[in-house]
Every structure is written in structure tokens, then in C-alpha cells.
Amino acid sequence: MTVPVITIDGPGGSGKGTIAHELAARLGWHCLDSGALYRITAVMGERRGIALDDEPALVALVNTLPILFEAGRILVDGTDLADAIRSEAAGTGASRVGALPGLRAALLQRQRDFASPPGLVADGRDMGTVVFPAAPLKVYLTASAEERANRRYNQLINKGEGVSLPALLEDIRARDERDIARPVAPLRPAEDAVHIDSTAMTIREVVDTVLAEAARRGLFAQAG
Ligand code: C5P
User: Fold this and answer.
1) Does some domain include residue 223?
2) Atom 2 of ligand 1 has which residue's CA nearest to it?
């Protein structure tokens, strides 16, 4: 049986995570935050003293690591890492381990296993190009680097983390560069992706645009 999948790819801070969760909630579908898997790998690698370029050791780690996503918690080997993986350091570490081809391969099946009825919304960098190439709806979500840095700044300030906006902007640009330039699964739109620039759009507008596309493709009975 084919499970419908909507993929949402794009650079960090484009709103993919928020949009994916909102869409999944509106549709009653499952949601895959693939970036969390890369972040978990980086955080657990560091906690276990593994260098973030030691590919065999990181592959062995992810192949044996019990990970459970449940109701806002991310239980990794029994510890809730939901907050720990959201730090800037975890994001940078994720981008480093994401450049390792063997590690990406090790995470592939784990990501595909999230596709179960009635459907899946998958958010990441290579959801439409590599992980779910047959997905009936692929979205490539962007926003200007300045707008993405602003959004991230506000998120971190709300969490009480002290950050500087210029440093965040620089970090976002560096991460984009690494994600776009890497030889394996680089960040790029799938050929058949619908492009949405969210710079001047509200979350609601983006979600409604994607739902309208999904309805047009007959992915669910009624437009939401
Ligand atoms: O989306 P998020 O910010 O959580 O991703 C963190 C990092 O993990 C990204 O910068 C990217 O390098 C990596 N990643 C990836 N492939 C994915 C999702 C995330 O390489 N599908």
C-alpha cells in the first residue's frame, strides 16, 4: 500500500518545522523531523566522546541508538533530548555529521519507516530528492537569510538564550553554504517541487497554500 507523503525541504529557518507540524496536525498525519535525527547524532556523539568526523563510530552509534518520538518528547536511550538538540551548537554539529555519506545512508531506512497510514509530512533537506523521491507533493520552502536570522533570533531570545543577530546571520549563511555545497544529498529543490517563499507570508498562509496543493492532487478528501 502506498502511504501519501508530503515533503518539505529548504534551508534552516525557512519555517519548515512549524509548517510540517501544523500540516500534519491539520491532516491527522504523522510528522518526521529529519533534522532531529542529525541533531541527535551530533549531541549523542559528543556526549559519548566521538569526534564528529569519525564516520564508522557515528554509524555504529545510530545503528544501535533507541530513539522514540512521543508527544513533544524525544527519548534517546531513555533521556529526553527535545531541548538539548535545539541549541545552536547541536545545529552546527548536525550540519557536520550530515556531510558524512555513510551516516546519511545509515539514517535512510529509519526515516522511511515513518511513512505509515494515513500519511506523512516529512521535513528536512533531502526529503523530496533522496528519502521520498516518489512523494506526490514536494515543497521547497525558502525565506531570505535576514528573515531566517530574525526568526531564529526571536526564538532564542524567547528561550532566554543570549545571542547576537549578526552572528546568527553569519551562522545561517555558513550552514546554507555547507548544506548546498556538500557532495552527498546537497540542499536543492527536487525537480518537481512547488517553491514557496515564506519571507512575507504568515504560517497560516503557507499551510493553506500547501493544503490547497495537496487537495489539488487528491491527497485527502477535503481541502482543509
Ligand atoms: O532542520 P534542522 O535545522 O534541524 O537541521 C540541522 C542540520 O541537519 C542541517 O543544517 C543539515 O545540515 C542537517 N540535515 C540534513 N538533512 C536533513 C535534515 C537536516 O543534512 N534531512
Assistant:
1) no
2) 35
